[in-house]
Amino acid sequence: MRVEADRRHITLPRLGMIRTCESTRKLARHLERGTGRILSATVRCEGGRWFVAFTCEIDRIERTPTRPDAVVGVDLGVGNLAVLSTGRVIDNPTHHRTALRRLRRLNKQLARRTGPRAPDGGRQESSRRWRQTKVALGRAHARVANRRRDGLHKLTTRLAGTYGTIVVENLNVSGMPANRRLARTVADTGMGEVRRQLTYKTGWSGGRLVVADRWYPSSKTCSGCGVVKAKLPLSERTYECTGCGLVLDRDLNAARNLAALVADVAQSRGETINARRGAVGPGIRAGHAPMKREPRQRGTPPRQRGGSLTLTDKH
Ligand SMILES: [Zn+2]
């Protein structure tokens, strides 16, 4: 198993030399410096594209976030990828909406064509046109997922590299448009993925990830005076406080509340951080839950659907 010096080819056992679409520069440098070792390679096909994933052992350089004392709250949404408590809005990857529209169109098209299931419940041969749509739908799904994943990785890398403490919600219950099941699924998986990535990336950077209690009303609380609204319809995109007159973007208000959680703990109790990088202590207000231990190892990819083949060099 080898990464070729031209950064564009790899050599795998049984498969030989293969050209890669992405540059292999990062991995190649580790191998050349002797700070990395390839253990195995997994080849899979997804959405009509071939991927190879290397499992490696890497000596990492110790890093610290550029602002180790800074706290940032992150609110994930649907309209945009995320809103930070600093006021920064991170947009969705470009053409996100167009891609979702295409998915909807293909789903409808698939339903109109003759699939493997007959109207009476029996099986029938699917039509060529049905299979064509099925393939196109698979590709469109893969493209949306890739774009989203890329955007999330860029976001979490930047967060972990910048802020010493990052506070996220446990579940994204704010900012989701009602009756949009597709959008909801995308947002939900994004939340879990952001947590997963931040867990291992804060581990690398020496930062800390705090996950708010799932019942903490980050959207309904006023970030100015602390008043909690009984009700806040999802259609209300602006938070208007009746107590102190604060008017603020809904997601920004939520992000600020998340960031304020950590400041509260530090003030009232003196901070205690355990091995799980969560704030600990029995007297902590509802809203401060230590993070759950991740069952997977740091940096391992999520479970993949479909077939894949893992290759190792024989020793
Ligand atoms: Zn207020």
**Element-by-element helix/strand order:** EEEHEEEEEHHEHEEEHE
The total tally of domains equals 2
How far is the first residue's CA from the last residue's CA? 11 Å
Estimated helix fraction: 25-40%
Main sheet record: 5 strands, mixed
By CATH, the topology of the largest domain is Nucleotidyltransferase, domain 5
Bound molecules: zinc ion
Query: How confident overall, as mean pLDDT?
Result: 80
* Number of helices in the DSSP assignment: 5
Q: What oligomeric assembly is this protein in?
A: single chain
Topology:
Blueprint: E1 2-3, E2 9-12, E3 16-19, H1 25-33, E4 36-46, E5 49-58, E6 67-76, E7 82-84, E8 89-90, H2 96-112, H3 128-162, E9 163-168, H4 181-205, E10 208-211, E11 238-240, E12 247-249, H5 250-269, E13 308-311
Parallel strand pairs: 6-9, 9-10
Antiparallel strand pairs: 1-2, 2-3, 4-5, 4-13, 6-7, 7-8, 11-12
The structure holds zinc ion.
Structure description:
With 315 residues, the protein is of the alpha+beta class. It has two domains: 1-59; 63-95 and 143-292, Nucleotidyltransferase, domain 5 (2-Layer Sandwich), CATH 3.30.420. 34% of the residues lie in helices and 21% in strands. It has five helices and 13 strands. The chain has helices at 25-33, 96-112, 128-162, 181-205, 250-269; strands at residues 2-3, 9-12, 16-19, 36-46, 49-58, 67-76, 82-84, 89-90, 163-168, 208-211, 238-240, 247-249, 308-311. The strands form four sheets. The chain has a five-stranded mixed sheet with strand order 8-7-6-9-10. The protein has a three-stranded antiparallel sheet with strand order 1-2-3. A three-stranded antiparallel sheet has the order 5-4-13. β6 and β7 (82-84) form a beta hairpin. α2 runs antiparallel to α3 (128-162). The radius of gyration is 23 Å and the shape is flat. Zinc ion is lined by residues 222, 224-225, 227, 241, 243-244, 246. The site of zinc ion has 8 residues, from loops.
